[in-house]
Amino acid sequence: MAVTGDETDRDSVSLSHVAAATGDMPAYQIRTPTTTLPQGVVMAASPGTLHSPQQLAEEATRKRELRLLKNREAAKECRRRKKEYIKCLESRVAVLEVQNKKLIEELETLKDICSSKTD
Fold first, then answer.
1. 73-116, pLDDT tens digit by residue?
2. Percent of the chain with pLDDT over 90
3. 12 and 29 in contact (C-beta within 8 Å)?
4. Which of 20, 17, 16, 18 is nearest to 28 (CA)?
5. Cβ(35)–Cβ(25) below 8 Å
6. Among 1, 38, 43, 70, which residue's CB has the most CB atoms within a 10 Å radius?
7. pLDDT higher than 60, residue 30
8. How many percent of the chain have pLDDT more than 70?
9. C-alpha to C-alpha distance for 75 and 80, rounded to whole angstroms
10. Distance between CA atoms of 113 and 117, rounded to whole angstroms?
């Protein structure tokens, strides 16, 4: 009796269902492909995917231009984010300088109060 690939698939499916129903672990088998190519046979691509050298050059040029465009946009975005980051740091420096100045004044005031009490 010859067993086709479909019959083998159905048999393995039905066996796995039986195993699942009984609580047993299903057994897995590694199957070899039913169709093999003789050695030395190469599958050719479809005619629509073959291109002339001119088409390949145009495709390469188009891809390069697209890559350059994306790179330009990424660089522009990077410069924008850097400017924003620097602006944020500058404003933080300004706030900290004001805070530092206030703390220095408070320290001087407290020093004056302590020195006048010890006199």
1. 999 999 999 999 999 999 999 999 999 999 999 999 999 999 88
2. 52
3. yes
4. 16
5. no
6. 70
7. yes
8. 57
9. 9
10. 6
- For residues 43 and 37, is the Cβ–Cβ distance under 8 A? yes
Name the token pair of 43: 């599958």
Residue 36, token pair as written in the block: 């093999």
3 state DSSP class of 44:
coil
The structure's pTM equals: 0.47
Structure tokens at 69: 């465009």
**What is the biggest distance separating any 2 CA atoms in the chain, rounded to whole angstroms?**
117
Tokens in use for 115? 């020195």
Q: Which residue stretches of the chain are H helix?
A: 5-22, 53-118
The Cα–Cα gap between 8 and 5 comes to 5
